[in-house]
Each structure stands twice: as structure tokens, then as C-alpha cells.
User: What shape does this take?
Amino acid sequence: MIGKISAENLMKNLKVQLLLILSAALFVLKLFFSPINSVPLIIINEVLFVAAIIFLVLSIGDLIKAGKMNLLSLVMNLGILNAIMFFFITFSDSILNLFYSNLGDKIKNPDLIYLIISFFYASIFISSLSYTFLTFRQFYFTGQKREQSIYFSTMSVFFLLALSTAFLDDIKGLSYINNTFMLVSIILICGNSIHISWIAFLTKKEKLLLLVLSVVILTLFILNIAKSGEDTTHYKILSGFSPALKTFLYLMMIYGIVYFSILFFTTLFHIPTAEAYDRKAKEISSLQYFSRLITQVLDFNDLAETITDIAIKVCNADASWIYLKHDSQNRITANKNIGFVDAEVLSKFVLSEFRSAHDQLEKTIYHLNSVKNVPQLSEKYSSLNISILRVHSEVKGFLFAAKKGDRIFDDEDKDALNTFADYASVSIENAELLEESIEKERLEKELDVAREVQKKILPSKNPEYPGLDISATFIPAFEVGGDYYDFFEINENKLGFVIADVSGKGISAAFIMAEVKGIFESLSKTSLSPKDILISANQILKRTLDKKSFVSAAYGIIDINDKNLYVARAGHCPFLLLRNGVAQDLRPSGLGLGLNYTSYFASTLEEVKIDLLQDDVLVLYTDGITEAKNSLKEDFGERNFEKILLENSNLTAEEISNEVIRGVTVFSQNTTQHDDITLVIFKWKQKFNFIGEQEWQNSVPQSKIKET
Assistant: This one.
């Protein structure tokens, strides 16, 4: 393959090199021997010129093959080239008179400047005419079912003979030779111009465009040949450069006039059948396309959009949509060229008319113009075509197509849409099954990863401090949430702790949770102020959290020696303090982490100090406890939670935790747990002198306590 490509590139380069050599030789000949009057020099000039045209045609042919332009693009290019030639032919006198006062003398006795100008002028026409010839060649071979190259090759040979003998036209008694070759060439042009089978492959829109282009280009060909008379400067320049160039121009202009005359009438006769051809072509291509879609992996939404898009083309409709039946829920999807409300109103209106008579629906074209009580719509639709999307005798939905104005569907449209709907039904079923399978697999993998992350970031055991009883319970839900708790052993007398809940669920929440762990673990070593730690954590999370995410958290430090608790809350559930048979919930103010990154966050965040007393119980939790639901969708609630805590406050921290979990489990035994449950309990067991009720009340800021 590489050797073949290299050989092709070598041949292309060789053609270009030979073309340049021949062009240079032609210029040198004219430079030293102009004007060329002797027969030997004329023959050499014509041989060089014809050879140059051959290699120019071959080189341009390689460019056209590499470009792979469509036929309409070639037609438009041909029109542009003719317009350029028309410009030069029309204004050649005016342009050249700018350089020479007596142009006739310069044509007979050219100087160097004139040779350069005439060489450039001739090069424009040689290139344009060569491209024109290759374009006609492309037209001839496109759409041919049988090999008919012999006819075009024969014409090409006679073209070369006509070009090669053009100089004989000025020799008395020999002009008939060139005239004969010209006549045969024109006859072959007429015969080959009849082969215009490529028009059949154009759409109606393209045929209408071609009709306009053919008129414009035909006019340009006629004008160009009319303005190339023997008394014009243009004619004198080309014939002076080479008689073959003059002949080449006439042949291409005649070819263009004949071809585009036939093309115009052929296209005109194709217009009435163009729409029917377009419809059949769309039907076949769409059915072929859908036969491939059945076995391909496709997103359901993309597939539905493709179905409605092709449905419009299949039956020449103005709008299309799919009405899907899913359990007890029906929905509109992939509405194309129609508003959602209009599609839903029309669907319900028509389906209510037929109810369960699906067989009748599949045979009926619904004419809205003749139906009374049609609902008010934003646009006027005249006709509806409905096909059933059925899989294994089960109706999955309906494919609707609609036309506006006075246009209506016919039986051919109905048959095409029904056939198309059969393919679409299978594709939809495959896409739904595949989507369900992929989604299930994705969720399972995501849950596995999230559970693993969550498992690794939670502490494996509780710290041990004299006089402090600690219990921590975490029960993950099937759908992984973002609950997190941790302990930080600052030193032998101080214990830091945190409890947090990341918004959202799944793997994204698990990864944010992992980052939150790292942040608090680092900050716990830098400060003994819970407020400062939460402020710093909020600033760090600014680089991580998006606008839709936030973290509620509470951070505290227990001082064993001073018997104090310092705690701050950033939007988390309140803390519960059980003391002397009363449950107090502490609510120091504070926004959730990630909700605000300005100084307002720090100004609203409060830190609370609590003096610890014998048998004090501090409870931290997440809303997975209070929002646990029973079969009646009722919440477990704060009252039930506090009741269990108070009834068991004389027990150890672990026993209190067990009673709470037992109560929540019994309450929600008939429902699925949808959120993580996290419960952290501290119980202070050191003995102190009795502190009265008034002194206890003074140990906690009253503005932060809500008595149960």
C-alpha cells in the first residue's frame, strides 16, 4: 500500500514537472522567435502547447479527484470560471490599452512586456478551459451504470486532433482537415451531452437550484463565444499565442452551450417526479439506517430524536413526536418542530377518541380540519398520522406525525410510517433494555466505590480518655450518602471531634467526604479554636465545592483537665446535651461550609463553651435518624429521638446508642433506609462537687439552648 501511494505521488510530481518544463519551453520559444511565422516554428509551438494542455488536464484531474467535490459544487465552479472568462473577454481591450496606445502593432511585433502579459492572459484561459473539460468529464461518468468510456475517449481524441490541426485553418487548401475534426468533435459533443443520468440522484431542492444555475451558465457560454469574434482583441491575443488555444475555447464554449441546453430541459422534466423520488429515497435510506440501529448501542434520547427526525422525512411531515406508555405514566419525548404542550394536547385528544381500538387507529389518518371540538393549539395542524410502537404484542407507545395548513397524509404516507414504526419499536426496546442494564451496572460500581471510600475514612476505633465514655455508630444506607465523623487526639488532655454531612449522594459525595477528612485532620493540629478551624475549612473548600454542593459540620474540643467543651456548628443538626433528666439542644449560629466565602461566614459563626458535669451526655447526629420514615411516610422526628435518649441517659454511651438505633429500626422496619445514620455520644464520668441547678444553667449560653 505504501509503495502504491509513493508511486502515485511520484507520477503526480512528474506530471507537474513536465508541465512546467513545457510551459518554460513555450515561453522561451515565443521570447526569441516572436512573431512566429514559419511553418516549422508554428508546428513546434503547437506541439508544445497541446502537450502542455495534456499535462495540465492530467494535473488538474488529480486535484479534482483529491477534492471529491459534489456535482452541484462543480456546476457552481463552472459558473464562476465562465464569469471570470466573461470579465476578461469583455474588458481585455480596456485593460491592455492601459499599457499600450497602439495595441494592434504590439500584437504583430510583441516586446517582452507584451509577451509576459499575453502569456499570463492565455494561462488564465488555458487553466479555465482545462477545468471546464474535466468538469464535463466528471458529469459524463457520474451515474453511469455501464462502462461507456469509449465514447468520451473518442471525443477526447478528436478534440486533440482538432487542436493539433488548428494552425492548418490559416493554410489555403488544408483548412478542411481542421474543419472536419471540429465537425466530428461537435457531433460527439452532442451525443455525449445526452448522458445526464446523475440528475436522477439529486433532491428536488437541488434540481431547482440546478435549473437556475443551468440558465445562468448557459447564458455565460453564449456570451463568451459571441464576444470571441475575429475582430476582437481577445481573439487576436489567443490566436496569436496559439491557434490551438482559439480552437480549444470554441470547443469548450460549444460543449457548454449544448450540454447546459440539454441539462436545462432534462432537469425541467425531472421536477414533477422529484418529490416522489425524494420520498422513496428517504424511505429506503431510513429503513436501511434503522436496520443497522437495531443492533447498535444508542442512548435512548438520541435514538428518540433520530426516530422523529426520520419520521418527518419518511412521510413528508411538518412535525413529529413520540408518546410513550411507561407503567401508569405516559410522557411525550423527542418532539420535533412542535411545542411540548401542543404535542401532549393532540396526543390525549386523538387517543381518547380511539381508546383501546388500536387496530382502527393504525389504519386511520386523522383529518383535524373535519373534526369538531379540536383543542386550541399554538399552530394549526391539518392532518395526523399515528403508528403504534409495539413490542411482543405489547403497546409501548405511539409515533405521531403531523402536517400543517391544508396538507394531508395519504395511504402511501401511512404505510411508510407504519413500516418505519416497526423498526423504531425494536430499536426503542433495545435502547431501553441497554440503558437499564448500563445504569444498573454503573450504580452498582459507583456504590461499591463510594462504600469503600466511606469505610476507609471513618475511624476504625474510638479513642480512650480517662473519665470519658465514647460511642460512635455509623449505619450506611443502600444509596450512599455523605455522612462523616472523626476524632483527633490532639494531646493526652485534649480530644477533637467532628461530625459532617456532605450534600448529595453517591461517589461524588464520598470523594468530597474524603477531602473533608483530610482538611479537618490537618487543621486540628493548627488551632484549639473550633470556630477558627471551621473558618479555615470553609476557605479551603472554596477550591473544591461547586455551587450546588455544601457541607454541614460541627467541630468540638474536649479539655479533660479543665473539664470544658468548646464547640462550633456550621449549619449542622443541633447538639443535644442530656443533664439532670433534661434534653437541651444547642444551636450556635453558623452557615454550612461552602455556602458563603466572604467575611459574613466568620461573623455569623459562634463558638460555645460548656462546663462538663458528672454524667453529662453530649449527642451528635445526622438527619438520617430524625428523618427516618415509616410506612406512612412519617418522620421519626426529634421528639422520639430525645425521648429515647432521656429514658436511657443513665446507661453507658454504647448502650444509649444501641437503644436509639433499635428505636429507629423498629419505627422504619417496613421501609428502606435512604440516608446514612451517624450517631456520636460522649458521656462524662468524672465526679465533682455538687453544682446547683442555677450554676448549671449558667454554664451554658442561654441564647443557644432550646428546652424540650
Notes: The chain has three domains: 2-278, 300-437, 462-707. The chain has 21 helices and 16 strands. The chain has a mean pLDDT of 81. The domain at 300-437 is CATH 3.30.450.40 (Beta-Lactamase).
